[in-house]
Amino acid sequence: MMQRLSVTRTANAGVLLETDGKRILLDGICKPFGQYLGTPSALRQQLTEEMPDVLAFTHKHPDHYDPSYAMLYQEKTLRSVYGPESLPFYALENGIEMRLLKTRHIGKADIAHVSYVIKGSRTVWFMGDASPLSLKSMAELPRPDLLIVPFAYAITPSAWRATRETGAQDILLLHMPPREDDREGLWDAVKNTVGKDSSLFTLQIGETVCF
C-alpha cells in the first residue's frame, strides 16, 4: 500500500518530510538571512518540542543550518545530525534509505555540500543549494517522485530543461524571497521560464502539501 508523503516548508530553503512513518527535517531551521525568511518562532518551538526522527543539512550557510538547534537536537535525542561530512548511505527504519550525494554549491565550489535522496515508498531528492550543473555531472541521476530545488533550477530555460529531465512527477521550488521583497525579480524569471507547467509548485513557510 502506498504511504502518504507530506511536505511542510519550515524555512527559507528547508522542509519537514513525513514519509512511511518517519519525520525527516532537511535544512529545516534557520534565522532570517538578508531578504530570505527564517523559521517562525511558533514553528521552531513546535519542532523543538517534537523533534524529527532525522535531522540533516546540506551545508553550513546560515539560511540552511542552525548550529544551536543541531546541538539541542543531539542533546535531546542522542541521535546524529547528518551533513556534508557524513557517510554516503544510511538505511533508516521502516525500509527508508537515505543517500548523500556530493554536489557543487551554486555560488562557491569550495563549500562542502551534499544533496539527499530519500527513498521509501516514494523517492524524494532534496537539492539544498546544489548547482543545476550537478545534474549534468552525474553519470546516473536518481529518478525522484518529488524533486525539491532552489530557484536556480527554474529561472533559465536550460536549467529548467535539466530539471524536467530528472523525470520528477512534482517539483517544489524553495529559496524564493517574499514577492513583496523580490529585489532580483526571481518570481518573474520563474514565471517567464516555466509558464503554466503544473509540475512546479511553491509553498509558504508553514504550509503543507500531501501526495
Describe the protein's architecture and organization.
By secondary structure, this protein is of the alpha/beta class. It has 5 helices and 13 strands.
Runs with pLDDT <50, length 5+? none
Query: With helices defined by DSSP (H or I, 4 residues minimum), what is the helix count?
Result: 5
Percent of residues in helices comes to 10-25%
Order of helices and strands: EEEHEHEEEEEHEHEHEE
Q: Overall mean pLDDT score?
A: 93
Strand content: 25-35%
CA-based gyration radius? 16 Å
Largest sheet properties: 7 strands, mixed
By helix and strand content, what is the structural category? alpha/beta
Q: How far from one another are the termini?
A: 14 Å
Count every beta strand, where a strand is a DSSP E run of 2 or more residues: 13
Task: Strand order, main sheet: write it out.
Answer: 6-7-8-9-10-11-12
What global shape is seen? globular
Features:
211 residues, alpha/beta, seven-stranded mixed β-sheet, six-stranded mixed β-sheet, 5 helices, 26% strand
